[in-house]
């Protein structure tokens, strides 16, 4: 399988060349274009992270209930995948170390990768983010997506990231939700809110923009459609985008 990422970083699309008898799992609706002979099916996936329970668990984490399964058959095939929002893509090669993925950060993976629900504790709930994140295990390729550009950080010791800018991190890292400075009042008045303090050694992947901030910005600036009805629509959109 050969992967090329085009139009980075704000409008990334993955061009994937599949060899014969290869398979690829992707979020429902991620396919942009593909070879005519590529076999496509909808699946809940079997094994670890699969089945009805696995699909429901992915829904809790903010992902699709169903996954799309692409098989190349007896000849090479080509497929293009893209995220729902404008942003970047980053390939991660699993080699035995589990990867924890923030809600909406997963786009696709090869057939030997297991995608399961990982409970990160109620500390995540207090950060305003999902308490259920996805855990990728096994061996193979995982394709991550972000809102805005995505970049890698090699953590060796301690590193602090805003909770809304986390895409994924290796499970060798531990984390705690805390304030960015010495004062809780200063943190909230300054607009920083809560941050994630990572410790240990491992890779961390961050995105440059936050969906919550984007939702608040767009929703608060929508023009009124017709008096109170327009305000209701704008308020609903702001809340939906802010919770993404």
Provide a descriptive summary of the structure in words.
The chain is α+β, with helices and mostly antiparallel strands. It has two domains: 2-207, 4-Layer Sandwich (Double-stranded beta-helix), CATH 3.60.160; 211-242, no CATH class. The protein contains four helices and 16 strands. Strands 3, 5, 6, 8, 9, 10, 11, 12, 13, 14, 15 and 16 form a twelve-stranded antiparallel β-sheet that branches. Strands 1-2-7-4 form a four-stranded antiparallel β-sheet, with no helix packed on it. A hairpin with a 6-residue loop joins strand 1 and strand 2. Helix 3 runs antiparallel to helix 4. It is globular. The model is unreliable at 46-52 and 122-129 (pLDDT under 50).
Please render the helix and strand layout as text.
Elements: E1 2-6, E2 13-18, E3 23-27, E4 31-34, E5 39-43, H1 51-60, E6 67-71, E7 77-81, E8 89-95, E9 99-101, E10 106-110, E11 113-119, E12 132-145, E13 150-162, E14 166-170, E15 174-178, H2 184-189, E16 195-207, H3 211-219, H4 228-242
Antiparallel strand pairs: 1-2, 2-7, 3-6, 3-10, 4-7, 5-6, 8-12, 9-12, 9-14, 10-12, 11-12, 13-16, 14-16, 15-16
């Amino acid at each position: 399988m050969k992967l090329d990422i085009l139009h980075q970083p704000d409008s990334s699309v993955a061009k994937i060349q599949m060899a014969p008898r290869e398979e690829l799992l992707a979020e429902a609706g991620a396919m942009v274009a593909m070879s005519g002979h590529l076999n496509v099916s909808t699946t809940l996936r079997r094994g670890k992270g699969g089945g009805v329970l696995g699909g429901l668990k992915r829904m809790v984490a903010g992902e699709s209930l169903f996954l799309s399964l692409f098989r190349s058959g007896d000849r090479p095939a080509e497929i293009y995948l893209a995220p729902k929002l404008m942003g970047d893509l980053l390939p991660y090669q699993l080699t035995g170390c589990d990867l924890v993925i923030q809600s909406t950060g997963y786009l696709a993976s090869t057939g030997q990768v297991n995608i399961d629900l990982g409970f990160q504790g109620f500390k995540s709930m207090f950060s305003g983010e999902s308490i259920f994140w996805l855990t990728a295990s096994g061996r193979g390729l995982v394709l991550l997506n972000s809102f805005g550009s995505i970049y890698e950080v090699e953590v060796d010791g301690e590193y602090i990231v805003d909770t809304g800018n986390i895409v994924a991190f290796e499970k060798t890292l531990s984390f705690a939700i805390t304030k960015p400075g010495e004062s809780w009042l200063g943190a909230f008045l300054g607009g920083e809110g809560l941050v994630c303090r990572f410790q240990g050694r491992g890779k961390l992947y961050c995105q440059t923009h936050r969906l919550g901030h984007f939702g608040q910005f767009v929703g608060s600036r929508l023009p009124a459609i017709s008096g109170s009805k327009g305000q209701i629509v704008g308020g609903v959109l702001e809340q939906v985008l802010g919770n993404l």
